[in-house]
Amino acid sequence: MGLSFDPDTVSLPVGHFIGGKLIAAEGAIEMRRPSDGKTYAASPVAGVDMVDHAVASAKAALKASNWGGVRPRERTRALQAWADLIEAEAETLARIEALCSTRPVGQLVAGDIAITAEQIRFFAEFADKEGSELVPTDDTSLGMIISEPYGVVGAITPWNFPISMAGWKLGPALAAGNAVVLKPSEMTPFSAVYMAELAVRAGLPAGLINVVLGDGPTTGTALTGHSEIAKVSFTGSTRAGSAIMENVARTGVKPMTLELGGKSPQIVFADTDLDKAATAIAGSVTFNAGQACVAGTRLIVERSVADRLTATILEKMKAVRPGPTWDDATQYSPVISERQRARVDGIVRAAIEAGGECLTGGCVMDSPGYFYEPTLIADVDQANPAIVEEIFGPVLTVQTFKTEDEALALSSHPTYGLASGLFTSDLSRTVRFARKLEAGTVWVNRYSRSRDHILPTGGYKRSGIGKDLGREAYLANRRTKSVLISL
Ligand code: NAD
């Protein structure tokens, strides 16, 4: 059995979490389990008043606890206690997450949850190590750059890795001395509510983390446009990122971190270990059924080895074991919703109509859940819909090149620049490509993050503004004030 569980026995925290309490509200959005399509809950939608209540609670908590002004080590210790409790409660958290989302329970406890707890600890350590500085001036004055928290940060997260995405936002914002009002995706909100409950149980001041449930147009717009939200931190699609920029510009200027979409290339040269490359490439497009912002969905391979590499990738893509997210043997996830699966299928069809050759997959799986066959499409040009669109599903395209220049030209995407992969054993070429690739991340001879949380992540082009993770994410949650004293 291991971590497997019966999905009908899980109790969910359905409600907003404000001021340290769960606030039940009438359900408005019907929710279905991606693994079997069964309706399991209805999520409330917070309107302007509920968002206002959450922001007011955050402000009151900051004032009552002096969270931004206490000895920084106290923030470190409190956040570490929260991380410890998240790990202690990992199985309960994993059941909530696996029930609602596309994340298999077998990947959650040692994966998403352990990583998130460690990232919270990582950010907690910045609290008493990064700070203000004295700067060089002449000896008649004293110059200082004082670093301060913003106040209340408004965070919005997507559905693809609900726990991890909440951790990316909450960890640095809280360590930096802010309070947070978080709006998780309307499709997967309950793990964030449980994380907020755990924070209070671990001793964090009630009201420091508030979670409002709801959709983008109602709840998201109320949050990003709220006059007391000092900074917006968003992860999601480029389309929603644009809408948020517009709303923020209309309602008042404020700083924003935007982590948006991607369409990342993986470039393979003949001089690499092809079997290792195939494992990394197939893994990146089947992991979470391709629903990852950094999924390496565009294979660009040297022509002389294209057939060999493609055949190996095909084998590996077909070998993944689909199953419900509550079965701990499951390797391959469903797509989040029927609507998203229809979108994936629509783009695949358009890609084939535009001349692409479907080498495997290209159809929904025979299952009550929203599963889609791992799909490989060859013969695509730069204008093919499967190249242009972020599909956010298990679809890999194959393009070939003869020269480095061709490889670079194919790798550049008109819209996105989130991540990229390069497989080669040539050191000089590695450096040339690392300099020229237009992406916020370059992975060489691998295609995945490590557990080195110090490496920031973020996009070039319309893949975003600013960074999550790393020192940059901590600093993005502080603002600086220049002080000059005449002596
Ligand atoms: P989405 O943009 O549809 O929704 C993301 C969040 O934004 C949700 O909580 C949603 O309710 C909210 N939202 C939507 N419209 C809004 C609006 N006008 N105002 C305020 N909030 C709004 O994205 P999704 O479908 O949930 O997630 C998939 C997308 O997220 C993909 O494009 C993926 O690449 C991106 N993503 C990016 C990263 C990264 O680090 N760059 C990480 C994960 C996911």
Defining traits:
20% strand; Aldehyde Dehydrogenase, Chain A, domain 1; Ald_DH/histidinol_DH; 487 residues; alpha/beta; 15 helices; Aldehyde Dehydrogenase, Chain A, domain 2
3D structure, described in words:
This protein is of the alpha/beta class and 487 residues long. It has helices spanning 48-65, 72-88, 90-100, 105-124, 162-175, 190-201, 216-224, 238-251, 274-286, 306-318, 338-353, 385-388, 404-411, 427-436, 470-475; strands at residues 16-18, 21-23, 29-32, 39-43, 133-135, 141-149, 152-156, 179-183, 209-211, 231-235, 256-259, 265-268, 298-302, 357-360, 375-378, 395-401, 416-417, 419-423, 441-444, 460-461, 464-465, 478-486. It has a seven-stranded mixed β-sheet, sandwiched between helices. The chain has a six-stranded mixed β-sheet with strand order 9-8-7-10-11-21, sandwiched between helices. Strand 7, helix 5 (162-175) and strand 8 (179-183) form a beta-alpha-beta unit. It is globular. The protein binds nicotinamide-adenine-dinucleotide (NAD). Nicotinamide-adenine-dinucleotide binds at residues 156-160, 183, 185-186, 215-217, 220-221, 224, 235-237, 240, 243-244, 259-262, 293, 390, 392, 418, 457, 459, 464, 468. The site of nicotinamide-adenine-dinucleotide has 32 residues, from helix 7 and helix 8.
